[in-house]
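Researcher: If only I could read C-alpha cells as easily as an amino acid sequence. Walk me, if you will, through where the backbone shape changes along the chain. I have put the entry right below:
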Amino acid sequence: MNKTLFRGLLLTAALALTGTANAFSTGFGEILVLDGLQIDGAQPVTFTFDKTDPREVALELKWDFTYSAGGDSGLSWASELGITVVAPDGSSWNLGTDGNWCNPCDFNFGYPDAPGVVGSGGSLDLGGLFYGLGVWEIIIGESFDDAGIDGQFLQGVIGINKAIVPVPAAVWLFVSGLMGLGAMRRRNA
C-alpha cells in the first residue's frame, strides 16, 4: 500500500469517527421556569412550546421544584398538585399523587393530604421517540378548587431533554472519503 493511500485511509477513518462522536447531541430544548407561579384549582395553567426541528427526539421529562400548598384559604393539600405533559402526537404523561390528579400517575409524588411545603426532583423516560412537528403542552393545576389561589411554586423548573439526530453525517463522510481514495488510486495506477 503506498503512503498516499495509507494517509487517505487514516484521514477518512479519523473524520468518520469525529462525525460519529458528534452525531447525537443532547440538551434541554425547552425549559419552563416555575418560580412564583400560582395555581388555582379552578383553572389549570397551560404552557406550550413548538417543536420545529423534525430531527428532534424527546429523551426525558425533567423537573426540580419546591411547592407551597395551602394558598389563600390555607386548606389546599399538597396531594392535589398535578402536572400533565402532552406531546404533539397526543401521548401524555402525568405527574402527581395517585388518586388525585391521576390514577395511577406516571410519576407519583406521594404528597400528603395536608397543606405545607413539598418538593420533587426527578426525570421520566420519554422513550427517545420522534414525536413529529407540533406543539408540546405542559398543564399544571390542582385537582380540587379551594377558594382563591391553592398554592405557589417557590422555585423550580420543568423541561424536556431532547436530542438532535442528524442525517448520518459520518456515513456520508466515510463514503465520500472512500470514493476520493478510489479516484486517487485510479489516477496513480
